[in-house]
Design goal:
24% strand; binds citrulline; L-arginine/glycine Amidinotransferase, Chain A; globular; alpha/beta; 3-stranded mixed β-sheet; 19% helix
Length: 264
């Protein structure tokens, strides 16, 4: 446990970044075009509840203002990977998202030394999963081999380990797997066969509740997307305290719970 009460490696956080969406959200990227049907007011209400939940868990949030130039800006996770020592500002895989990182960098700079990835490769924070001290980096439609290797080198320079995992389906690695504790993950069974999870307890998300695999574990509580009762029960049976949060409007733009914040 550090002086500020955080214990990064046990998913205990005291600070975070969020960015409430504006009307631009209907122009967000979405694989099935559903973002155009987002109810922005409802999205803002859902975001406010998400913020309240994090604050209720003792996390002090920095709010980055929405920017009409960046329809996907609320998905802050993709722009920044927090390591215990530094904040890595990523090179997001979608060209329309490249400019989002500047305001996130400005918000984080007073709190962490900044390291910007080069433009040699691409990497979305949604592909970076930390299991205790090992970072699993997904190679996906958004994160390419160069980006994954570059982040891997940065992770090593900062005293941790990494492994690259292929993401054959879904947007990001964290769309399918969530670390809940240093020895436990939640996820889709098709992803949990990777050797990184060999000695790890697994809570399997049923295939018909797939969006529930993207959850947030923070300060002893698991925040799960609302509407997935079987996943919730499995978590509670395993002893986790659970809070459900409705993110239906963000799901229309392929967003999950983790992507709406960066915590440390
Ligand atoms: C995108 O396609 O980039 C956004 N519409 C959704 C990003 C979701 N990010 C995440 O799960 N980390």
């Amino acid at each position: 446990m550090r002086k500020d009460g955080s214990d990064f490696f046990a998913y205990r956080y005291t600070r975070g970044i969020v960015r409430c969406p504006g009307p631009e959200l209907t122009g967000a990227l979405s694989r099935n075009g559903a973002a155009a049907a987002i109810d922005v007011e409802q999205a803002r209400t859902q975001h406010a509840r998400y913020v309240k939940i994090l604050e209720g868990l003792g996390i002090d949030l920095i709010h980055v203002p929405a920017d009409p130039a960046f329809p996907d800006g609320c998905f802050v996770e993709d722009t920044c990977v927090m390591l215990p020592q530094i904040a890595v500002i990523t090179a997001p895989g979608a060209p329309s998202r490249r400019g989002e990182s500047l305001s996130v960098q400005q918000a984080v700079a007073p709190h962490r030394e900044i390291r910007r990835m080069t433009d040699a490769g691409t990497l979305d924070g949604g592909d970076v999963l930390r299991l205790a001290r090992t970072y699993l980096i997904g190679r996906s439609g958004r994160t390419n081999a160069e980006g994954a290797e570059e982040l891997g080198r940065i992770v090593k320079q900062n005293g941790a380990d990494y492994r690259i995992v292929d993401v054959a389906q879904g947007l990001h690695l964290k769309s399918a797997v969530t670390p809940l504790a240093p020895d436990t993950v939640l996820g889709l069974s098709s992803f949990l066969g990777d050797r990184a999870f060999t000695d790890i307890k697994k809570i399997v998300v049923p295939e018909d509740e797939a969006p529930a695999a993207c959850a947030v574990a923070a300060n002893g509580t698991v925040i799960v997307a609302d509407g997935f009762p079987e996943t919730r029960q499995r978590l509670e049976r395993a002893g986790f305290s659970v809070i459900a949060c409705d993110i239906s409007e963000f799901a229309k733009a392929d967003g999950g719970l983790t992507c709406l914040s960066v915590l440390w």
